[in-house]
């Protein structure tokens, strides 16, 4: 509990510094909510893949949208990429597990604030979505997407302690993004003949409670993995080289 308390204290300091940037979160949530509401009828009828692509981009964007420049993951040296703020904290007498845990709090808070807002607002203004899923099942859908966002977006706070990136790393990262979206298209559009978001609607409708349980367990395991990865990186990297 002491570790969690101190991690929240560090995150609170960061929130005070970056409070103006939370307007970015409001703006991004509003823009994407308008887009989701506008395209929902066509998506539910025709499984338009670009909807799923923009949904994933939205999830990734909100994870770092509230961070000022000095807090963002960026180039520090020839091959070292990290968050200057995380590097600075590492020079202070702060336990590393506290430091690493604090990196996850604000990104996950942004997700927890933005996803329910966007999906609830889309539901209110989209009769087509209301026909596709009931109010109680909507809660399950929101939990699914919060947990998916935690799992996917955890890569950003996990990267803040730093990575030694070489040219091949950039190539592999770019290739991984392409492979991810191609796989998403082949699995859902070609094989299952549905959209990714539409598939989660099906899960929320047919397996309401089970979807919540599995989503929370999966997000917990993946977040633990990202936490352990960040802790490993902060112990391995020589920031003074």
Describe this structure in words.
The chain has 241 residues and is an all-alpha fold. The chain is 78% helix and 3% strand. The protein has eleven helices and three strands. The protein has helices at residues 2-17, 22-46, 49-64, 84-90, 96-125, 127-132, 135-153, 155-159, 167-191, 196-206, 208-236, and strands at 74-75, 80-82, 163-164. The protein is globular.
In short:
By secondary structure, the chain is mainly α.
Which tags fit this structure?
241 residues; mainly alpha; 3-stranded antiparallel β-sheet; 11 helices; globular
What's the SSE blueprint?
Layout: H1 2-17, H2 22-46, H3 49-64, E1 74-75, E2 80-82, H4 84-90, H5 96-125, H6 127-132, H7 135-153, H8 155-159, E3 163-164, H9 167-191, H10 196-206, H11 208-236
Low-pLDDT stretches: none
Major β-sheet profile = 3 strands, antiparallel
- Which percent range fits the helix content? over 70%
Categorize the overall geometry: globular
- Structural class from helices and strands? mainly alpha
Task: Please state the average pLDDT score.
Answer: 88
Please, how many helices? 11
Strand content: under 5%
Strand element count: 3
| Series of H and E elements | HHHEEHHHHHEHHH
Give the radius of gyration.
19 Å
- Give the CA-CA distance, first to last residue: 34 Å
User: How are the strands of the largest sheet arranged?
Assistant: 1-2-3
